[in-house]
Structure formats: C-alpha cells, structure tokens
Amino acid sequence: MAGSRLPSTRSLAERWWVSRGTLEAVFDRLQSEGYVQRVAGSGTRVCAVIPEQFIAVPLARETPRRPVEPDQLDAGVQSHVPFVARRPDAGLFDLKTWARCISRGLSSVAPGVLEAAHPAGLPALRVQIADYLRSYRGMQCEADEVIVTIGIRHALDLIARSVLQPGDTACVEDPGYLPARRLFALAGAQVQGIPVTSEGLDTAQLPEIARLAYVTPAHQAPLGMTLSVSRRLALLDWAARADAWVVEDDYDSEYNYNTAPLAALKSLDSGDRVIYCGSFNKNLFPGLRVGFMVVPKVLRRSLLRTLQLTGHSVGASDQLGLVEFLRSGAFVRHLRASRQAYQARRDTLLECLGGHCAVSGQQAGLHFVLWLPAGVEEGDFCARAAEAGLTLQPLGKFCHDVTLPPAVIIGYTALTLAQIRYHGRTLAQLLMAA
C-alpha cells in the first residue's frame, strides 16, 4: 500500500540469503524510477502514486481498433526493382562494422555532445569530411567550410531559402534533376533550363544575369556525361561576371569504371563561387540521411541561420558513427568493394543487351541511358516493360524545353547479378520486339 514501510535491506538479506549490496542496488533502482522513497532515519516507503500515472493517460474503455492501412510505396524509389535508377545496394553495406562505429562513437564522447550539437554538424565529422574531400575530390577545403545536411535535396532547399529571392533567375540543366527545378521554383525563382550537349551544360546559353546555376558535372543527371574542363572554366568565369553562385551536385562521383575521375568543380573555384553538395546516402545506404555542403564563406552565416530555423539536422549518433567509419578507413574500403560490384553488374547487363541498343553514360555512376529504336515511343515501351515486371523511367520525364530522341533510364546497382541476368534478357527481348 501507499506509504507502507518496506523491510530493511539487512533483514531481507538475512531472510533471502541474498547479498545486501544486491538489495541496495534494487532499492536504489526502485527509488530512481519513482516506486519508493528512501529517507535517512525513516526507512524505505512505497510511493503514494506509481510512476506510470505521470507518463500515461488513464485507460479508456476498450474500443475496437480499425485495421491499419498499409503505406503505398512509390515504385520509383524502391530498391531491387528492375530497373529503378540511382539506388545503391544496401546489402553491400557492412552493418556489423557500422554498429561497432556507432558504439565506439557514443562511448568516446561526453554527454554534452548529445545535448547540443553544433548546427553545422559535429566538428569531428566536418574534419573527416574535409580530409576525405581533399584526398579524393581534389578540393582545398577546411572543416569550417563544411555544413552537415540530411542529403542533397536538403542542401538545395537550404540554398533556395537562403540565396534566392522571388524573381531571381535560377539556371538548371535541361534535361536535369527535377527536385532542383521544383525547389528553386518554390522559392519564387524564375527557373531557366539550359540545354546539355556531349560536353555537359552549354555554358554559351547561360543568361547574362542570374542568381545561380545548378549542375551535376561528374555524371550529368540523367544523361551521364562529364562536364568538360573547358566548360568548367567557362562556367566559373560566367559566375564571376554575373556575380552568381554555382551549385555543384556531386551525387555519385565515387563510381567511375573506365578512368580516374576529374577533380570536383569546386577544386577550380578560386573565386569562392561554388556551393558543393555531397551525400553519403548514395554510397552507403539511402536510409542513412546524411549529406554535406562545402560553402563559400560569405554564405555560411545565412545558410546556418536557415538550417537552425527549419530544424532539419542529423542525429548525433549517426554523426558519431560516421566519424569512426571515415576515420577507420571503412568508408574507403566500402567504396572500393561497391565500385567493383557495381562494375560487374553493369558489365553483365550490357552483355545481356548485346548489340540490340545504344547506351550512354555507362562509364560512371549508378545508371545509364538506353536509347530506344527510332519510331518507338517512350510511354508505350515503358508500359510494355511494366507488364513484364520492369520499372523504367522515360528520359522525357526529365526534359522541360528540350526534345530528345526516345530513351529510358536504366538503374542496375541495386540488383543482384542473378536478377540482372534474368531481367536483362527480358529487356533485350522487349527491345528486339520494339
């Protein structure tokens, strides 16, 4: 009963033949959870109100519960569906190593790190990201230029909210990454599509006045070409003349299968005009939700202010795990292994398709473009593919003003070799029947 006095630990120890230290630990636990009160000289008494009454509402009468409606997943973002594009294979990720990294990270920090992380991200993680970018992307950057985000779209949203004003011109690639166009439009910008040629963004068609230009220079989304060095220099020269910013989306630069990659566009940025955006979600696993930006010094304060206002930040435990994952070399080892696996899958799929088609953009990244035979409509081909169990994205979906020959986007990285062989033969048969 409430207020009842419990026997002393000494008497219970003698009665039950249990160590008194064990009973003291039990009583301390009951007190910490609010079940008893221990007062010196007065013994241990049962609390009048049990703790559950402070954390749970009174039980209502039993009412029947309705069935839960299952979530309707978007087929465009599921892994292991042939041939959904831009999806890594989470099965290649070493969860045991990740668990050890999270454990080491959490055990090595003081409670203060878990209470109030820096809005730009944990300093230790920003140091590791800057070290990686210097070593593998040719960028001369320091930790104080890095801001941790939850991914590329989060970075683009921060940029749109912080840099763009209603009526500003924002240039994007055409065809290009649709969320970038939509996020800039939501900020009130006038979005202008710039055509893409075999060398990447056609810099000659950039307007004289614009606030920013968004590009995917390493592996253009979706066509897959690399922005040439001459175009990179022309883009930076345009940014200096127009007093504009260049947003570099480096979403899958780690995967090159034929040659060494070019350094990031940011590495040529002597005028500090490039906002570099990267992500761990494409090379580790999509559910991680950790990305980063390398930002010009004059934009850092406004971007951080927007980040704090929106409240979208990465949890401390994931950041601490990534610190250990990067520091230990596990990240680079994962990149080497996944690159080898993805190259084998690409080669197997191209072998299945044989000489029945033309492809482009297959030299890098997580997808390539499959060009359809003349006279075949993208919509009809995708519909027939869906009947055969294949999920294809038409190239026209990514076009705004430009018109390109019919093609589809083919993702292969999230499929096993057995799946690729099976579904690759189906795709080849559809092409021959087209």
Q: Give helix % range.
A: 25-40%
- The name of the CATH superfamily of the largest domain reads Type I PLP-dependent aspartate aminotransferase-like (Major domain)
Query: Which strand order does the major sheet show?
Result: 4-11-10-9-8-5-6-7
Structural class: alpha/beta
Shape: globular
Rg value = 28 Å
The CATH C-level name of the largest domain is Alpha Beta
Order of helices and strands: EHHEEHHHHEHEHEEEHEEEHHHEEHEEH
Poorly predicted sequence stretches spanning 5 or more consecutive residues: none
CATH architect. name of the largest domain: 3-Layer(aba) Sandwich
* Percent strand: 5-15%
How many domains? The number is 3
Given the structure, what is the number of helices? 14
Most strands sheet: 8 strands, mixed
Detailed description of the structure:
The chain has 434 residues and is α/β, with parallel strands linked by helices. It has three domains: 5-55, Arc Repressor Mutant, subunit A (Orthogonal Bundle), CATH 1.10.10; 77-86 and 335-433, Alpha-Beta Complex (Aspartate Aminotransferase, domain 1), CATH 3.90.1150.10; 94-331, Type I PLP-dependent aspartate aminotransferase-like (Major domain) (Aspartate Aminotransferase, domain 2). It has helices spanning 9-16, 20-32, 52-55, 95-107, 111-115, 123-136, 152-163, 178-186, 229-242, 297-310, 316-327, 330-353, 378-387, 417-433, and strands spanning 5-6, 36-39, 43-46, 146-149, 169-174, 190-197, 200-201, 212-215, 245-249, 274-279, 291-294, 358-360, 367-371, 393-394, 407-411. The chain has an eight-stranded mixed sheet. Helix 7 (152-163) packs parallel to helix 8 and helix 7 (152-163) crosses helix 10 (297-310). The mean pLDDT is 92.
